[in-house]
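Review form for a predicted model. The reviewer records the input and the model, then writes brief findings.
Reviewer: anonymous (R2)
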Amino acid sequence: MSDRVATSGPGNSVSPSGSRPVTAQRGPGTATKAPNDTHTLPFDQGEYRILTRIALNCQPLIVDSAAQTRLSGDFLAALTANESAGVQNAARFEPAVYDHLRAIAAGESVAYGSIRAGDLDRTAQATLGVKGDDFHARYLNAAFASNNRQAIAALEDNALRQLATSWGYTQIMGYHVVGLKATVRDLIDPRFHYHLAVELLTDFARQFKLDPQRDFEQLFRCWNSGSPHGKTYDPNYVANGLRRMQVYRNVLAAQAVPRGELGDLRSKVQI
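Model under review:
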């Protein structure tokens, strides 16, 4: 896992709460075994710290959100690590999406085109979970433009930027709230965020006939590329996710100890 950050775009001007989004950074790695790890996975201290933070902060929400589905909590935790490193208000502005939404508002565009490499925000290239053009094309289609052009045209520029930004634990795009009884601010509410993430993942599983308890590689690809066989922006995205699922299981096993020892775990990993 390389050092990555979760951040907003230019000026950090798109925060729905008016505050600067938190930066998520990985600490230095070490070549040792994870606590209570009975497997032979290579251990990275920074990655273990991130997944411990997710377990301590998100596990109840993950369990609750997945309760009515067949989605794996381990998968949701690893997806969180891939996308935001477990930072609740992580945000990333995507200029190409912003340009497309402006074109919809002006009546100049219908369906989302491909993103050229030069269109990507240079700060976004150093973030977790950059989504590919096919993902955006899945949602920003002709029907989206037709149904929402008037509402989008009425928005101020900062509101458009919020729609063109990915938010929260699993980096849900702001445009996903268009047409819902919700706002972009809701995407950094953990309970709302995970419930919407589960809905989107369930849609992928239903459309592509995926088993949410087995087809983890395909689900990772769907979340990042829009299809179960799509090319992920980061070529290591799927491998990272699958590895982090196992690391998360190890983290939960390490936490299945008396409360005092859990406090020691918090101290050791410096959450």
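Findings: Strands lie at 91-93, 165-167, 172-173.
Further findings: The chain has one domain: 17-269.
Recommendation: see findings above.
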